[in-house]
Amino acid sequence: MSAFPVPGHLNPIIAIPARLAASRLPDKPLAEIGGEPMIVQVWRRAMEADIGPVVVAAAEPVIAEAIGDAGGWAVLTDPALPSGSDRVRAAIAAVDVDGRHDVVVNVQGDLPTLDRATIRAALVPLGEPAVDIATLAARIVEPAERTETSVVKAIVEWSDSTAAEGVPVGRALYFSRTAAPWGDGPLFHHIGLYAFRRRALDRFVTLPQSALERRERLEQLRALAHGMRIDVALVDTVPLGVDTPADLERARQIFAASAQP
């Protein structure tokens, strides 16, 4: 995948929400991968995207200290905030009071192998002014993932043409943990990385939860329920998300292999 150019009219900032509490892998932002805490590895991947400043929205001082020790930028956010989106919104409100950055890219703090081109691809749908939120998906190639409920499917009406950058883009109609849509054809694995227009993020965090959001346990359904437009860019692969000890070991193996001469 090539490094996509940032649309010239956009001024993005990347925010990475991180907190220690995690039921399946406690303290995972500080888990060692490739000789550094995982949150530092994610921060490095975000810096490599080179689309704008990167700030870590840290729920605890120890996370902010780890980023500071690596030469990065972190701000403390209220640990009681209910979601990563709320944490991102709080951090951006603190560091960009004047609203200079009109796009906020929310990069999850558990994606240490994320490719810089994948981050940049999330900006492509925002070339369409009517889009409120942009996100990513990749074609499902493993048959088991079609019915795996931990794999969120993006139900997208893909455009007949591609964006100027050569990236297929479509409009999200729904997201589900079920194998959807029905019938012959590919399914698409949603990648939980979002590029919000600043005004869309400000609105999103004030909206009440929707019934389908609670049922599917998918936050993005709140935006669709309230009439916000989400467009999706199609990328080649799904980055490894570290949620379990097995995921952590796999990430360590990937880093160890990449360090081989």
Task: Explain what the structure shows.
With 261 residues, this protein is an alpha/beta fold. The chain folds into 2 domains: 10-113, Spore Coat Polysaccharide Biosynthesis Protein SpsA, Chain A, CATH 3.90.550; 115-238, Spore Coat Polysaccharide Biosynthesis Protein SpsA, Chain A. Helices cover 28% and strands 25% of the residues. The protein has helices spanning 38-49, 61-69, 84-95, 116-121, 198-204, 211-216, 220-225, 245-258, and strands spanning 12-18, 32-33, 36-37, 54-58, 74-76, 103-106, 133-139, 153-162, 168-176, 188-197, 230-235. Strands 5-4-1-6-10-7-11-9-8 form a 9-stranded mixed β-sheet, with helices on both faces. It has a two-stranded antiparallel ribbon with strand order 2-3. The longest helix is centred in the last third of the chain and has 14 residues, at 245-258.
Please tell me the total number of domains: 2
Overall 3D geometry? globular
Number of helices: 8
The first-level CATH class of the largest domain is given as Alpha Beta
Order of helices and strands: EEEHEHEHEHEEEEHHHEH
Please outline what is shown here.
The chain is of the alpha/beta class.
